[in-house]
Amino acid sequence: MQLAEIPTPEPGPGQLVVQIHAAGVNPVDTYIRAGTYAKKPELPYTPGMDGAGIVLDVGAAVKEFRPGQRVYLSGSITGTYAAAALCEAAHVHPMPESVSFSQGAALGIPYATAHFALLTRAAAQAGETVLIHGATGGVGLAAVQIARAAGLKVFATGGSEEGRRLLREEGAHEVFDHGAAGYLKLILEKSGGVDVVLEMLANVNLANDLTLLSRGGRVAVIGSRGPIEINPRELMARNADVRGVMLAGSADPLESIRIHAALYAGLENKTLRPVVAREYPLGEASQAHEAVMASGARGKIVLLPQSE
Ligand code: NAP
Question: Hey, where are the domains in the chain?
Fold first, then answer.
């Protein structure tokens, strides 16, 4: 990745240009950059799907936003690792005053994915128990806060002491180390079986997840970096399900409107409080890509384009 000067985009009739104050760095940005993702962009391209900033310019048909408004993005036409991004109106969401730009950059993929996985795909209900397997990163911390506010009993795992402390602060009832021997047994003992698992690393954990489920339990697979062998009998014995989660492209437009309305309400009433782990200038995007793939997560990694 390298910095380059390009002209600021002009909005078409249904489009907006947003000045980006913070861009969210997601693992998927690294898969796309490395060329290992299914969908590959034409080169050269500007990476980034998430961001937050101020509306600079709106096209003639855009009625719901005005220049100067604080917004966050769930996608863009031109990429968010940039000083300004061209967007469709559907990419743009209003942001409460109390939410910082860096926090806003944590919303698009992580919070929307956590909401979709927990409440739509896994259909989690108040009073149920959820295991958030890999809870210290962008999606996991969002899931901890959403699950806690929705009345679930929250079990969460993290790989570092600092990450696990953060999980307790953010509302997890029980916290475990996914690097420690015997942690799965502990989860089973403390929970008596979990109703839902949100899985961030299915290629490592899926076979074990099935053994933690209660009857009618659901595993929502959010992240996986390779294949894994499972024993289908673990599913049969529990009438359990494994459900895939792919926010991009599969959530219908109404679903997206519902999710972002719920996120706005949660931000306003402060049950949702994005945690920013580290901020980098835009020119250090390469270091930010290394950081997002390293272990020891403790929230969101963001780029600050206006600091150049
Ligand atoms: P992130 O911020 O980089 O966090 C990665 C998480 O994985 C951390 O909590 C990390 O914990 C945890 N982890 C590491 N080793 C683990 C293990 N053995 N078992 C369980 N968890 C482990 O990434 P993210 O943005 O939260 O995304 C998480 C995954 O979901 C990524 O693979 C991403 O590509 C995927 N994702 C999918 C969708 C979708 O639509 N399906 C959307 C967003 C993200 P420690 O660092 O504390 O060890």
Answer: 15-107+274-304, 110-244
Query: In whole angstroms, what is the distance from residue 85 CA to residue 88 CA?
Result: 10
Q: Model confidence over 176-203: pLDDT tens digits?
A: 999 999 999 999 999 999 999 999 999 9
DSSP letter string, 192-232:
SSEEEEEES-HHHHHHHHHHHEEEEEEEEE---SS-----H
Q: Given ligand 1 and candidates 49, 118, 199, 201, which is best to mutate, with the most ligand atoms within 8 Å of its CB? A: 201
Same fold across 15-107+274-304 and 110-244:
no
Give pLDDT, residue 17. Answer: 98
- Alpha-carbon distance of 49 to 24, in angstroms, equals 7
- For the 15-107+274-304 domain, the top CATH level (class) is alpha beta
Instruction: Locate the ligand 1 atom nearest the alpha carbon of residue 224 and give its number.
Output: 32
Return the residue whose CA atom lies nearest to atom 40 of ligand 1. Answer: 246
Class assignment of domain 110-244? Answer: alpha beta
Centre of ligand 1 from the C-alpha of residue 209, in Å:
15
DSSP symbol at 306: G
* Ligand 1 pocket at CB < 6 A: 26-28, 109-110, 113, 133-140, 157-160, 163, 178, 200-201, 204-205, 222-223, 245-248, 292, 295-297
Q: Separation of 132 CA from ligand 1 center, angstroms?
A: 10
0.70 surpassed by pTM: yes
For 245-276, write each residue's pLDDT tens digit.
998 766 588 899 999 999 999 999 999 999 99
